[in-house]
Design a protein that fits this description.
The chain is mainly β. The protein has a single domain, classed as Jelly Rolls, CATH 2.60.120.700. It is built from 1 helix and 22 strands.
């Protein structure tokens, strides 16, 4: 079994806000207000990458299974940039607590770092919360205070240059953008991904929230369409092999990812 880096949620840690400020250990109510004062009801719990579990089946456009990732990953080279666009999904909280992330990143598939930015759609206590973040492992993630709502048009990119990694996220519906440049000396840039993820707690992978279907478009790696890199397609399955999220075929830079009933 091959091992790759992923984000995980650590409920007992302090919450990081935009700008890197540590809020410290928080109650659920306080954390929710810190993430997005405008109506989030559950915290964006602090996350650090650990390892997702992939089983590779090989071949061109190979399909892989993972217990926490679903999407596409370009591998086998050194990459400089990755980007995508999508409409922020809503989550159905009638099924109980669940968590879902929608991000682009460099590294993580076959290396021990991740440089990534994305949005979240979580359910806690019957209430949905939506927000945005970036992460440069091994540092803790940073959550933005900006409003994110279902139906928003989101664009994400991670780009490596002489100044380091620039992580940019734009919510054109709400009219805001966030961009930071960070350095990470040991990053290999050995993969480029567009991913739906079920984050993890210290006890393992958390339930994947029912996000319906998310459609990614205009996905580029190093300025070329994602499909031109023959990326690995990743389906998410439970530890027992039950499908949890599956990717469609890839056309240029477009594909969809669909939650499966569990």
């Amino acid at each position: 079994m091959r091992i790759f880096v992923r984000r995980s949620i650590l409920p007992t840690a302090g919450l990081l806000l935009a700008g890197g400020t540590v809020a410290g250990p928080l109650t659920v109510a306080t954390a929710a207000a810190a993430v997005a004062p405008a109506a989030l009801h559950a915290p964006r719990l602090v996350s650090t990458p650990t390892t997702p579990f992939f089983i590779s089946h090989g071949g061109v456009h190979a399909t892989t299974t993972s217990t926490n990732w679903s999407g596409y990953a370009a591998t086998g080279s050194t990459y400089t940039s990755v980007s995508t666009s999508f409409t922020q999904p809503s989550v159905d909280c009638s099924k109980g607590n669940g968590y879902s992330s929608f991000w682009v990143g460099l590294d993580g598939y076959s290396s021990n770092t991740v440089e990534q930015t994305g949005t979240e759609a979580d359910c806690s206590g019957g209430a949905a919360s939506y927000y945005a973040w970036y992460e440069m492992y091994p540092k803790f993630p940073v959550n933005y205070r900006n409003t994110v709502r279902p139906g928003d048009s989101i664009s994400e990119s991670v780009t490596f240059g002489s100044g380091g990694f620039t992580l940019k996220l734009v919510d054109s519906t709400e009219g805001w953008s966030q961009s930071v440049t960070k350095k990470l000396s040991n990053a290999k840039r050995s993969s480029a991904e567009v991913i739906v993820e079920a984050p993890s707690s210290s006890g393992g992978v958390l339930p994947l929230a029912d996000f319906g279907t998310v459609s990614f478009s205009g996905s580029l790696v190093d300025g070329s369409t994602l499909s031109s890199f023959n990326p690995v397609g990743i389906d998410m399955v439970s530890s027992s092999g039950t499908p949890e999220a599956t990717v469609s075929s890839l056309s240029g830079g477009s594909f969809s990812d669909t939650w499966k009933s569990q």
